[in-house]
Amino acid sequence: MHSTEPTLPETPEPLLRVNGLTRAFGGRPVVDDVALQIAAGQVTCLLGPSGCGKSTTLRMIAGIESADAGQIWLDGALVQDGPAGLAPERRSIGLMFQDFALFPHLSVAQNVGFGLKGDKAVVASRVGSLLERVNLSGYGEKRPHQLSGGEQQRVALARALAPKPRVMLMDEPFSGLDNRLRDGIRDETIALLRAEGTAVLLVTHEPEEAMRVGDEIALMRAGRIVQQGAPYNVYNAPVDRAAAAFFSDIN
Ligand code: ADP
Ligand code: MG
């Protein structure tokens, strides 16, 4: 008997894959059967109105919030399977929040090197090169309160980059910044992450921001991803009236 193997096109395994991710609080589903895929080096925006479950999704991917059900693979490895998951520090992820969460009593250099282990001189040189990359050479001995909001944001970026994560998870990290500086800081941050080859999952409630920085947009509503695709497609072919209305205030 003859049998021919079917030849399938090779689809590369996405860097981050989420399947069936679900979480309820007090019996109310807040994240409901979420599926997401992020390719290496890509910027994906998780976009949706306040309260739709974006932060909870991000926190489960980070491993700082437990899941009720679902799987998360990072670089092909299963890091979350239902309620069981790897500790956050064992996932190759970096985290940035709106509140930069810098340690006020530590210097900039100590903040950046906080999670780094090993030989002091090696850590110091790595911290130096990280500060250089975010344009903060010479700031190492300062304290966070001596820095502007934009500078603090760059310290948080350097700290998040220190363990060389494959994916940077960002929860509205720019929304606390002064309006005039915000777009510039955001564009610089995303450009730097692109240059590093770090994939990004950026949570935002602003369609304009997602359109500007995303390679992909995952549109979320009431705990579910209702549409995922290139910004142009999501904008021009909204999945329903509510999606169209959500984008309608962009000029
Ligand atoms: P988003 O980031 O899109 O604004 P969140 O993921 O923060 O949404 O929250 C989604 C919903 O889940 C909200 O109604 C919020 O109040 C609720 N929620 C989030 N965390 C908790 C928690 N720890 N306990 C109870 N409810 C929560
Ligand atoms: Mg949120």
Taking the alpha carbons of the first and last residues, their distance comes to 63 Å
Count of strand segments: 11
Low-confidence stretches: none
SSE series: EEEHEEEEHHHEHEHEEHH
Write out the distinct hetero groups bound to the structure: adenosine-5'-diphosphate, magnesium ion
Shape: globular
Helices and strands in order:
Elements: E1 16-25, E2 28-38, E3 43-47, H1 54-62, E4 69-74, E5 77-81, E6 84-85, E7 93-97, H2 108-112, H3 120-133, H4 149-161, E8 167-171, H5 179-196, E9 199-204, H6 207-213, E10 216-221, E11 224-229, H7 231-236, H8 241-247
Parallel strand pairs: 3-9, 3-10, 7-8, 8-9
Antiparallel strand pairs: 1-2, 1-4, 4-5, 5-6, 10-11
Helix pairs in contact: 3-4, 4-5
The structure holds adenosine-5'-diphosphate and magnesium ion.
Q: How would you explain this protein's 3D organization?
A:
The longest helix has 18 residues, at about 180-195. This protein has helices spanning about 55-60, 110, 120-135, 150-160, 180-195, 205-215, 230-235, 240-245, and strands spanning about 15-25, 30-40, 45, 70-75, 75-80, 85, 95, 165-170, 200-205, 215-220, 225-230. Helix 3 (about 120-135) crosses helix 4 (about 150-160) and helix 4 runs parallel beside helix 5. The protein has about 250 residues and is an alpha/beta fold. The chain has a six-stranded mixed β-sheet with strand order 7-8-9-3-10-11, sandwiched between helices. It has a five-stranded antiparallel β-sheet with strand order 2-1-4-5-6, covered by helices on one side. It contains eight helices and eleven strands. The structure holds adenosine-5'-diphosphate and magnesium ion. Adenosine-5'-diphosphate binds near residues 25, 30, 54, 55 and 56.
